[in-house]
Write a structure and sequence with these properties.
Belongs to the transketolase family. Its cofactor is thiamine diphosphate. By secondary structure, the chain is of the alpha/beta class. It has a single domain, classed as Rossmann fold. The protein has nine helices and nine strands. The strands form three sheets. Strands 2-3-4-8-7 form a five-stranded parallel sheet, sandwiched between helices. A two-stranded antiparallel sheet has the order 1-9. α1 crosses α3 and α1 runs antiparallel to α9.
Length: 276
């Protein structure tokens, strides 16, 4: 189904407002994400909740202009976070969120270029950073931002892309790692430890910045620093898996949910609404 974008979001619409307004934006989008997954009956919620604030920082800041700059969601199953952000940024009508993961919808369980504002169709994990590096090489006058997951760093292609970006000195490439410490069947330390991820990227010739990924303002400030680098930048965003919903936090069983009960849904909604 072809969708014509609404008033295309290209520059800062909300982020000149700071502090409390960003907090309220995060709260509303977290509710939208929860509602969307509950209504559809399934979805990857744990990582989407951890990735949401970093994605908000990317889109709702005056740093980037997405008529020219690029965003690649490598961990494509985290698309619920991207969808609610794109809807808020008026790339498509918000009511389209109710079609998430349904037959015939453009909003499927992995991102696709059918979605307005999306340049990369995801599939197997580990491929998006290579795509982003290619974009950065081909468009050196603009910034390419990629979001990867920490579990995704089990994939060898991530490290091939890291070598490539270093060789070509892609200072216009930023890789945000959603470092929530969990993946589909356990903690990253149990499944395949990445140990000192920062040290690995440094050895590959990247500049590395570490930030509290749950704090939107801190992520914004880190993105500002990253944009002025002469080398590719890896931002390790330390986030909370299942952020905002206590019974989902730090529990890999919420990597995805199927038919979340009404009681748990209402409990989760109440927690988000009452969060300080």
């Amino acid at each position: 189904m072809a969708i014509t974008p609404c008033v295309l979001y290209t520059e800062c619409m909300i982020l000149s407002q700071s502090g409390p307004s960003l907090k309220e934006l995060s709260r509303q989008l977290r509710l939208d994400l929860l509602d969307m997954i509950y209504q559809s009956g399934h979805g990857h919620i744990g990582g989407s909740l951890s990735a949401l604030n970093p994605i908000i920082a990317v889109y709702f800041s005056p740093i980037f202009n997405f008529k020219k700059d690029h965003f690649v969601l490598s961990a494509g199953h985290l698309c619920p976070a991207l969808y609610v952000v794109l809807a808020k940024a008026a790339y498509f009508p918000k009511d389209l969120l109710s079609s998430y993961s349904s037959f015939g919808s453009i909003l499927q369980g992995h991102v696709s270029t059918q979605v307005p504002g999306v340049e990369y169709s995801s599939g197997s994990l580990g491929q998006g950073l290579s795509f982003a590096a290619g974009l950065a090489l081909g468009d050196k006058s603009h910034t390419t931002i990629c979001l990867t997951s920490d579990g995704e760093h089990n994939e060898g292609q991530i490290w091939e892309a890291a070598m490539f970006a270093s060789k070509y000195k892609l200072g216009n490439l930023i890789n945000i790692v959603d470092h929530n410490k969990y993946q589909i069947d356990g903690s990253t330390d149990q499944i395949m430890p990445t140990n000192d991820l920062a040290a690995k990227y440094i050895r590959f010739g990247w500049t590395v910045l570490t930030v509290n990924g749950d704090n939107i303002n801190q992520v914004i400030n880190t993105l500002k620093k990253a944009k002025n680098s002469n080398y590719p930048v890896c931002i390790i965003a330390n986030t909370t898996y299942g952020k905002g919903i206590s019974f989902m936090q730090y529990d890999f069983k919420y990597h995805s949910v199927d038919n979340l009960s009404q009681n748990l849904y209402l409990r989760a909604r109440k927690e988000i609404l009452n969060a300080k």
